[in-house]
From TrEMBL:
Pfam families assigned to the protein according to its UniProt record, in alphabetical order: Cyt-b5
InterPro entries in the cross-refs: Cyt_B5-like_heme/steroid-bd, Cyt_B5-like_heme/steroid_sf, Cyt_B5_heme-BS, Cytochrome_b5
Family from the record: Belongs to the cytochrome b5 family.
Keyword Plastid: no
Name of the protein in its database record: Cytochrome b5
CC terms in the record's Gene Ontology section: endoplasmic reticulum membrane
Regions crossing the membrane: 108-126
Annotated membrane topology: Single-pass membrane protein
Keywords associated with the record: Electron transport, Endoplasmic reticulum, Heme, Iron, Membrane, Metal-binding, Microsome, Transmembrane, Transmembrane helix, Transport
Compartment list: Endoplasmic reticulum membrane; Microsome membrane
Keyword presence, NAD: no
Organism for this UniProt entry: Multifurca ochricompacta
Domain Cytochrome b5 heme-binding: start-end pairs: 3-79
Length: 127
């Protein structure tokens, strides 16, 4: 079973508490049975469902005991192709573009009253 290659589509189909897979360090794990026993609670794992949980997993500094549990839940290797980080970067780029657009819009909202104020004082000064 360990030789199974899990695709990105397959990974993304396992995102509910009843059927949850996570990707950690290039391997996919079925944490469905473990989630209720997880000392860190179910919410934290659920928020990583169907995703690359490597960063979240490593940031916590899981013990060797925690790491030793992983092989018992192994589904298989994650397929080599899709780069989840690249996809995350794309959405970050989209978010940045959106933020930029919002920023430009708020610049307009800031500029219009300012221009009106300047015009008013200019009018007061010259009339
Ligand atoms: C994927 C399989 C996972 C396994 C087998 C696992 C296992 C464990 C174990 C055994 C502990 C107890 C402390 C230790 O021995 O390090 C623990 C704690 C913890 N885990 Fe996980 N974990 C997993 C995934 C995650 C993920 C994805 C997160 C996301 C942030 C997470 C967050 C935490 C937190 C915050 C604690 C600390 C709880 C506390 O000390 O109060 N874990 N985990």
């Amino acid at each position: 079973m360990a030789s199974k290659v899990v695709t990105l589509d397959e990974l993304r189909q396992h995102t509910t508490k009843e059927n949850i897979w996570v990707l950690v360090n290039g391997k996919v794990y079925d944490v469905t049975k473990f989630i209720d026993e997880h000392p860190g609670g179910d919410e934290v794992i659920l928020s990583e469902a169907g995703k690359d949980a490597t960063e979240a997993f490593e940031d916590v500094g899981h013990s060797d005991e925690a790491r030793a549990l992983l092989p018992t839940m192994l589904v298989g290797e994650f397929e080599k192709g899709p780069n989840l980080k690249a996809k995350a970067y794309q959405s970050t780029a989209a978010a940045a573009a959106m933020e930029n657009a919002v920023q430009q819009t708020s610049n307009v909202f800031y500029f219009v009253p300012l221009a009106a104020l300047v015009a008013y004082f200019a009018w007061r000064f010259y009339s």
